[in-house]
Amino acid sequence: MEDGSEPTTLREKAYASFTRHLLARDLLPGQFVSQRELVAFTGLPLGAIREIVPRLEAEGLLTTIPQRGMQIAHIDISLIREAFQFRLFMEREAVALFTASASDDELARLRREHEEMLAQALSQAPTPEMEAKAQSIDWAMHDTFINALGNEIIAKAYLVNSVKIRLIHQERFRIDGRVVPVMREHLAVIEAMESRDPQKAVEAISLHIDKARRLALQI
C-alpha cells in the first residue's frame, strides 16, 4: 500500500525545480509556458507539474490565461510595492527579535563576513564571481533573520516572497557595481544589533530595504 510520500516528494521537487529555473532566468517574467514545457525544464512527470500549478497560481508566480496558457508573473509596479511591503513587515520584526536573541558569536560571524567582502570590493575591480559572492552574503543575512524565528509558517511565506524579490532584483537592479554600499548598509544593521538596540536595528534594516525598493521602482 502506498503511503503517499512519493507524490509529495515529486511535487516538492517540481516546485523547487521551477523556482530554480525561474531564478536562473531560464523562464522569464511574462513568458507563456505549457505544462509539457515545464516537464522538459524540470525533468519531472506531467502529473507532478499539474499538481504544482494551483500552488504557483496561489503564490502569484504563475497565471493561467484561457486560450493562451500559463504565464510567468510580470514584474510590475504593483508586484514591487507589495513584495517590498511584505518584506519590510516581516524583517522589521525578525531583526528586532534577532537583536535580542542572537549570540555574540553569530553577530561576530556576520560582521567578519561583511567586512571581508567590503575590503575585497574596495581593493579590487569587481568581477562576476565577487559580485555573486556578495549577493549570496546579502541574501543569506536576510534569510538568517527569518530562519532564527523558528516559525515554519513565516518561513514558507517569506520564501515565496523572496522568490519575487529576487526576480525583481534581476529585472530592475542587481548588486553589480553596488557591493560597497550594500555591504556598508548591512554593517550598519549589524552594528545596531551588536548594541542590542532593537529599535536602532529596525531603523537600519528599514532604511536598507527602502533603498532597495526605491531602486526597484526606478523606471
UniProtKB/TrEMBL annotation:
Keyword Transmembrane helix: no
Gene3D superfamilies reported in the protein's UniProt record: GntR ligand-binding domain-like, Winged helix-like DNA-binding domain superfamily/Winged helix DNA-binding domain
Annotated keywords: DNA-binding, Transcription, Transcription regulation
Start and end residues of each GntR C-terminal domain: 82-211
PANTHER family referenced in this protein's UniProt entry, alphabetically: GLUCONATE OPERON TRANSCRIPTIONAL REPRESSOR (PTHR43537:SF24), TRANSCRIPTIONAL REGULATOR, GNTR FAMILY (PTHR43537)
The protein's name: GntR family transcriptional regulator
